[in-house]
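Revision sheet: structure tokens.
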Amino acid sequence: MGETGAKPGHDTLFDVEEMELALGPQHPSTHGVLRINLKIDGERILDSYPIIGYLHRGTEKLFELHPFFQNVPHTDRIDYVAAATNNLAYVGAVEKLTGITVPPRASYIRTILCELQRISSHLLWLATHAIDVGAMTPFFYCFREREQVLDLFEEYCGARLTLNCMRPGGLPFDLPVGWTDRCSAFIDKFPAKVAEYEGLLTNNRIWKKRTVGIGVLSKEQVLQYGITGPMLRGSGVDFDLRKATPYEAYDEVDFDVPVFPNGDTYDRYLVRMEEMRQSARIVRQCLAKLPDGEVMAKRPRVLKANKGAEAYFGIEGPKGEIGFYIVGNGTPNPDRCRVRAPSFYNLQVVPELAKDHLLSDLVAIIGTTDIVLGEVDR
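Predicted:
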């Protein structure tokens, strides 16, 4: 804690020197074990420095210690509120490395699971972001629909959070009887629920006061920092891996990529709200076009990658580009595995976002990055 007080020779009733303050790692608004060291003058932030590593588990080394098939559960625990997209990024990299082609039905089901996961992740983001800023009602509304998504996950694979729902070559199970009908019923009602959330927040003058013009990032800044996902598109950059490099069934469905120009907390909110609507649109089309057939490719019982072979596969996760770089060594284990996690990149820009804002604005700024510490620390 720095000292405060008057400087010699000055009449400084309101002159306050800089103070150092630590926010977290126990503070609930940091959304996990994140600590931010702040340099403040009164309530105004002069500088900030995120301190990470409290949740470091050596995940990348764990991938190298186990065969390809056994590593899928590790991916669940990177972004532990978006397990399905993590699963897809990893198994996609393994398939690219080993030359496995996934059956069409599996590709469609994977797409459905990933878009349901995007909805679930965005609902959790909105619920926690809103309650951090002071709006309690959206928290209950969002969890109402999120529970229905988790029910669908549970019916499919028996898990609600750490799903372990994909395998190199396809899927462990086909859809249970009646699942598509229940999913379709949810998707039909969901856009009206999104409208309810927007009715509470979008034109609410307190919400706009806390988000408009807060944490502004220019196009140049997001590109310089390697920011992806909603934070990128909230600064006016039209880039989405589902469109730029289509994978699974994304090139067979129609959807729009929401882009907003102002780069502030409010525009990033608008991007994610529209993304939920587009996810529902994608799921509806996939359910209508879902082909028959197998959900698992023919593959060797023991999967090996050639020595020196390497592959990178990235997808559009809820928070941005999640990707895996894998190197083979001729054994059932990868020689090297590197994770490209969007939360890590999104967190590094917090000092830029917070500079010259008030301490209360930092809570909204952390919320707008939508970080999960599991994939920051790994």
